[in-house]
Design brief:
340 residues, alpha+beta, Uridine Diphospho-n-acetylenolpyruvylglucosamine Reductase, domain 3, 5-stranded antiparallel sheet, 4-stranded mixed sheet, 25% strand
Length: 340
Amino acid sequence: MTRDHVDLQPLNTLRVPAMAEHFAEVTVSSQLEGLLAHARSNRWPITVLGEGSNVVLGNVLPGLVLLQRCKGISVLEEDDSRARVQVAAGENWHSFVRWCLERGYLGLENLALIPGSVGAAPIQNIGAYGVEVGEFIETVHCRLLPNGEHKVLDRGACDFGYRDSVFKRDLSDATLIESVTFQLPKAREPVTSYPTLANYLEAYDIVDPDAQQVFEAVVEIRSNRLPDPAELPNVGSFFKNPVLAEEAFTSLAAGHPGVPHYDDPVGHKIPAAWLIEQCGFKRREGAVRVHADHALVIINPEHRPAGEIVALARDIVGAVQARFGILLEQEPRRYGIFEQ
């Protein structure tokens, strides 16, 4: 059953005013067949929402908005070395990470406290502190929106990259993810090389951390550095950290000695927050603004419309490109019709 003209402001973490032309909440997969058929018969475009933590919504979302709320975690197979776990897309990501740790399933501890649902994780190939989720994904079970067909993609077919996947390219906005199957080790050397995490562990004299200690460190770091969307509306990191090839990085460093960077398999990763801060955006006031403690986060404390957020993002991109010759790429996806 669908509802008309539904307020989406409580369903996006930027808290922008937005309205769904038609809306349905999906709590069991069996509902999908009828809903997708209904949308096709009416020629409605379909937008899928999870927890609304990585989206910028326009004033109106035409067609049908499907809120993915399916729950459930199943251990498919387990032995002394690993576990295969299938997780419904509507499960909360951080809760799932904690669930894994409680059972000795390792690898996801660096991804603690990332907002959003399990279904959103493969789309963005979420990553933090030296780990990306794509490493642990075995398959993604999804439904093709144009025809309702079931599709199972293995890790290779997902074509994961830095904050990227096939779901943001060839299958962009063409699928509804129903569940994700993870393969998780029971023994694994913790990943602690990322500078922010390494510095934290060193400051607390944690020399040989286990997964639980890494989890706790990541939770504290993120809690201290990033505003809670429930208290201060935001979508976390608004831009990807650009990765420069050797020649481009050498040119940048010549003009800007001391530019921070991290080695990446395909080049040098430059903190987008540093680029934005150098352009003075942390000092700017406004109803929609860059967070004073983290320039990568755009905040919307007065619940202003998305057009104002888009305008600020455009200003940031233009300023960084003019000063550094680097084109920033926005992380959250945009949906709907935008008006100033």
